[in-house]
Write a structure and sequence with these properties.
The protein is an all-beta fold and about 120 residues long. The chain has one domain: Sandwich (Jelly Rolls). The chain has strands spanning about 10-15, 20, 25, 30-40, 45-50, 55-60, 65-70, 75, 80, 85-90, 95-100, 105-110, 115. The radius of gyration is 15 Å and the shape is globular. The chain starts with 10 loop residues before the first strand and ends in a 6-residue tail after the last strand.
């Protein structure tokens, strides 16, 4: 078992010695990203944090994607999801995500990469 508490400089010390995540902005307003792992062999695992009303446009991944809602409420392809809900998206399935309330979910993607749908391009 591996526990990684200081991953790629994505954490900082707080006054009491606890470590805190440093979220990275994405191109989408109100959506932040915290990478946990990424490789060609094992894909990508990350946390995504949304402000209420923030959204990811329609997109697809080259491999399957799994979501586990940790906090808040999300709409994934018009389906309402709550904490502890699990979503499985097959490879190539176009989907969009919108935060109904502020929240965080864990994403595990079989393969790195994403293709934004032409209709959703800004």
């Amino acid at each position: 078992m591996q526990i990684d508490r200081e991953q790629s400089g994505n954490r900082e010390q707080t006054e009491n010695g606890n470590q805190q995540r440093i979220w990275q902005d994405t191109p989408y307003p109100g959506v932040c990203f915290y990478g946990l792992s990424e490789s060609l062999e094992s894909g990508r695992t990350a946390l995504l944090k949304f402000d209420a009303g923030a959204r990811l446009p329609a997109h697809a991944h080259p491999g399957w994607e799994q979501l586990l809602i940790l906090e808040g409420q999300f709409r994934v392809n018009h389906q309402c999801c709550h904490p502890r809900d699990y979503v499985f998206l097959p490879a190539g399935e176009t989907h969009e995500v919108e935060a109904i309330t502020a929240g965080i979910y864990l994403t595990i993607a079989e393969k790195a990469g994403v293709k934004i749908s032409k209709e959703a391009e800004i």
